[in-house]
Amino acid sequence: MKLFWQLIKTVILTSSVFTVNYSAIAQETESKEPQPPKELERLEYLRGTWRCQQPAAPAPANSIFIWSVRRDLNNFWYVGKAQETRSPNNAKPVSSQEFIGYNGASKKLIRSTVVGDGNSYNMTATDWKDGKLIWEGILFRKGTSTPLRQEIVQNSQDKFTATYFITDEVNKWKPAVNETCNRIKQ
């Protein structure tokens, strides 16, 4: 009989330990309201409305577009929309939509863009360094993929220049397009 009571005590003690541990685990795993990552602050410079031209000023513009970037989707993303302006040299202006954010798993800024001409690109960056943000990734165009790099240089709080690079035959970066963007609204 004594063995029976020891067994009962062990079962009760073990049950209470599991109950206590389960309670502790349940409290630890209760989901808190998700918060946007603080690393998104790295992208705050881009927020606003920009007038951009390609090639970069002071060269005459072949393409002019308005790029608007705002926090959206419960402040977890920056959402950008670019709309090229119609001109005599550009009867079919193109628009694009992009999502810019932070990936906690890779610890990188991420950017995914789709363009109204069927192109798209996905890129990552680490952080601004000496007023420069370098994005690298892949451009998908006409059924092919090409390495793509974009260097954004802050000229001032309200102006930046950007250069897009593609690789040459020996996989070295060569400039393909450059642009100047001036902030027209915060």
Q: Tell me which CATH architecture of the largest domain applies here.
A: Beta Barrel
Termini Cα gap = 81 Å
Number of helices: 1
CATH topology of the largest domain: Lipocalin
Q: What count of domains describes the coordinates?
A: 2
Low-confidence stretches: 7-20
Mean pLDDT: 87
Please explain how this structure is put together.
The protein is an alpha+beta fold and 186 residues long. The chain folds into two domains: 1-30; 38-185, Calycin beta-barrel core domain (Lipocalin, Beta Barrel). Helix content is 15%, strand content 50%. It contains one helix and ten strands. It has a ten-stranded antiparallel barrel. The longest helix has 28 residues, at 2-29. Residues 7-20 have low confidence and may be disordered.
Task: Please give a quick description of this structure.
This protein has 186 residues and is an alpha+beta fold.
